[in-house]
């Protein structure tokens, strides 16, 4: 249930989170999951017993926060349905973690820098793509690398080394036909994601290409070689 007397704002309050998940993994997973709705300025989660199972997510735009509230309400997150509402203004976030808000002047500067960086066909999160959302041709030794034909398995690169299968499942299971995520312990930073068919894998690729699983890591997705 949303609290009717709290007006829409940039910060959302999420509760009923799984208390067994470690703080840093929780923050990374929330960032990865909610970044699809807009630029996130901060994710606040604290260890104190009174505040476990809760988090605050600060978006740069109210519309992003509103979309997240609507679409992620009751979403199963680490086996528990999330309860989401707008936070009671900035004071909630500031009271729980000092100096977490980015000043408006800095936000405007970040927005300006983001606009300047947008150049040519690329995903919103920075990985260059063609018009179909697949990665633009990459080059090795001055020659373009061979493009793998579409198939039902995706090859995901540029992941943080501490990415878990659970984190990736949260992202990919929202797409029809999702089957499983496979990671290789000896090769951190990559994963394979399998779907029922290539149409479903293509949809997921186009939607998540360049998705920032952390502020520094934009996923690079291609079809796996068979």
Descriptive tags:
Alpha-Beta Plaits; 28% helix; alpha+beta; four-stranded antiparallel sheet; 14 strands; 226 residues
Describe the overall structure:
The model is unreliable at 91-98 and 116-144 (pLDDT under 50). This protein has helices at residues 23-34, 62-72, 90-96, 104-117, 165-172, 198-208; strands at 11-15, 40-44, 55-59, 76-77, 80-81, 83-86, 139-140, 143-144, 153-157, 178-183, 191-195, 212-214, 217-218, 220-223. It has six helices and 14 strands. The strands form five sheets. Strands 2-3-1-6 form a four-stranded antiparallel β-sheet, with helices on both faces. With 226 residues, it is of the alpha+beta class. The protein folds into two domains: 11-104, RRM (RNA recognition motif) domain (Alpha-Beta Plaits), CATH 3.30.70.330; 120-223, Alpha-Beta Plaits. Helix content is 28%, strand content 23%.
Provide a compact summary of the structure.
With 226 residues, this protein is of the alpha+beta class. 28% of the residues lie in helices and 23% in strands. It has helices at residues 23-34, 62-72, 90-96, 104-117, 165-172, 198-208, and strands spanning 11-15, 40-44, 55-59, 76-77, 80-81, 83-86, 139-140, 143-144, 153-157, 178-183, 191-195, 212-214, 217-218, 220-223.
Layout of strands and helices, then pairs:
Blueprint: E1 11-15, H1 23-34, E2 40-44, E3 55-59, H2 62-72, E4 76-77, E5 80-81, E6 83-86, H3 90-96, H4 104-117, E7 139-140, E8 143-144, E9 153-157, H5 165-172, E10 178-183, E11 191-195, H6 198-208, E12 212-214, E13 217-218, E14 220-223
Antiparallel strand pairs: 1-3, 1-6, 2-3, 4-5, 7-8, 9-11, 9-14, 10-11, 12-13
